[in-house]
């Protein structure tokens, strides 16, 4: 008996928004193009939409390691949407703030309000569907962060809020001061980084009906490039069994978990963005799924 996979629509937590069970991320967007290559970015967005993808993930820090600098990815997306405003109505846009180079984190009320406004200006949008704290600021009281996020939602600039790279305890502390639910948590999660299975992240998400947005679902590309890795070999075989590739198998392995993780695909190649939908073709039995986990752990499960 095979494990159930998500349908073509899953809830984005308790936001009231439904999205495709795979997202497209823009971490590498500013590194892939020059500032004027907007046509290439539109082609990627169109490929994602053709694949069925509706959730588009970016952050103000994306581009910091490229020539465009801080805000680069948001700026490129904003230019693409300015040239093709018809695309916006088909997109659920998520962005993040709170990482400040050299600090390194700032979730103070003053900073977050300015960060959101700056993101919206770069995107050329009056609002986004999801705004996430990118990483926890240890010096910010969760009560103050919650008050700031609540004000963002009340202003109409943000529909729902989420967290990224938060531990379950950090999630719980923030939620305790919020008047509405955190709709998403964004951990690193792949067959090579399976900590969320054991650290309580996925369990908490299921308990709160929060969406799990999995970043680096291909293990930073290692699952599709390290051909001699035993985990990759299992994924290669599983993909071939269903007439597709290793990446599709790696994504489907995540999606088979009952927390229904939404993998964020980071490829900047339109053909590969389009092929990500093949993940819905790959099925797993419980034995096959656990074999991948045991191989990743390097030991038999007790």
Question: Keywords, please?
Answer:
302 residues; alpha/beta; TIM Barrel; 39% helix; AKR_Detox_Biosynth; EC 1.-.-.-; Aldo/keto reductase family oxidoreductase; AKR; oxidoreductase
Give an overview of the whole structure.
The chain has 302 residues and is an alpha/beta fold. The chain has one domain (12-221, 259-280): Alpha-Beta Barrel (TIM Barrel), CATH 3.20.20.100. Helix content is 39%, strand content 13%. It is built from 12 helices and 10 strands. It has helices at 29-32, 38-51, 72-83, 109-123, 142-155, 168-175, 201-208, 222-225, 230-241, 246-255, 270-275, 286-297, and strands spanning 10-11, 18-19, 23-25, 55-57, 92-97, 128-133, 158-164, 184-186, 211-214, 262-265. It has an 8-stranded parallel β-barrel with strand order 3-4-5-6-7-8-9-10, surrounded by 4 helices. It has a two-stranded antiparallel sheet with strand order 1-2. Helix 7 links the parallel strand 8 and strand 9. Helix 2 (38-51) packs across helix 3, helix 3 (72-83) packs parallel to helix 4 and helix 5 packs across helix 6 (168-175). The longest helix is centred in the middle third of the chain and has 15 residues, at 109-123. It is globular and about 50 Å long. The two termini are 22 Å apart. The model has no long low-confidence stretch (mean pLDDT 96).
